Amino acid sequence: MRLEVNIASKTLNNAAGGRYDVLADINFSLAAGEVGVFVGPSGCGKTTLMRILAGLDHDYHGRVSRPANARIGMVFQEPRLLPWRSVEQNVRLAAPLADEAKLSALFAVLGLDAHRSHFPGELSLGLARRVALARAFAVEPDFLLLDEPLASLDDALAARLRDQIANLVDSRSVTTLLVTHNVDDAARLGDRLFLLSSRPARILADLSIGTPRRARGEAEIAAIKADIARRINGDRIERDAS
Ligand SMILES: Nc1ncnc2c1ncn2[C@@H]1O[C@H](COP(=O)(O)OP(=O)(O)OP(=O)(O)O)[C@@H](O)[C@H]1O
Ligand SMILES: [Mg+2]
Fold it and tell me: What pLDDT is stored for residue 113 in this prediction?
């Protein structure tokens, strides 16, 4: 699925009645199967942008184009499970057509086998995030949106889930957008890295990584991370100086 984004602006009202811009001139396109990663400071507008791209918010100036019949899978920043439904029911409700073999494989890969009959209130945040991932993957999306899916997980688990996201995305060529504060995840997962400014979010840099995910060595990953850090710090120094 190809995605074409031209958002001129997105404005919000605050509780005091003031209006402020959250997004400004967000223009990019993603080819089918590409993984784009947004990295930007807290509060800059990443979740706002993801909601627009998922089609959940139409109140902005600009245009987002994707095929009308594209299947969308989304992992929200908060897991957002239905509290009165079991883990298994939460996933099945999102993907009623998914067959048992596929769901079993998904639960196994995400380490959720023992939790299928548990309710969200019985889960740790890390487990709830995995259920949210299972729900997004179960729909076999053409377009996958992941808003900080690996936050608050320990390093080993985050690395394992990151590999699983990479496997899934590569096996079905899913056009994907991921938000993260972790430059290591960005450098390992992304084909394109979008570095965002503080609010209103603008694209400070749009970096294409030529080497396929699987072929990236540790030296290249370190170089990508250093490049991201240099650009983010450069922006911070410029802002502090102005
Ligand atoms: N419904 C709303 N009404 C008013 N302001 C909002 C609303 N939702 C978000 N904001 C504000 O818009 C800005 C962008 O919020 P958003 O959640 O998109 O940021 P973010 O980049 O996802 O941050 P984080 O990294 O902390 O998740 C913030 O300043 C936030 O306070
Ligand atoms: Mg957010």
Answer: 95
The closest alpha carbon to 185, from 161, 202, 167, belongs to 161
17 phi-psi bin (left φ>0, alpha ψ -120 to 50, beta other): left
- Indicate which atom in ligand 1 lies nearest the CA of residue 77: 27
135 & 191 share domain: no
Are 135 and 148 in the same domain? no
Question: What are the tens digits of pLDDT across the range 109-165?
Answer: 899 999 999 999 999 988 999 999 999 999 999 999 999 999 878 888 899 889 989
CA of 3 from ligand 1 middle (Å) equals 23
Closest atom, ligand 1, to C-alpha of 45: 18
CATH number at residue 22: 3.40.50.300
**For residues 226 and 224, what is the distance between their CA atoms, to the nearest angstrom?**
5
Let me know: does 134 contact 106? Beta carbons within 8 Å. yes
Distance 215 CA to ligand 1 centre (A): 36
Give the residue, out of 47, 51, 59, 198, with the most ligand 1 atoms within 8 A of its beta carbon, to mutate for a pocket test.
Answer: 47
Domain edge (last residue) among 107, 123, 140? 140
Tell whether 95 and 177 lie within a shared domain.
no
Q: Measuring from atom 16 of ligand 1, which residue has the nearest CA?
A: 45
- pLDDT one-digit tens code per residue, 173-196: 899 999 999 999 999 999 999 999
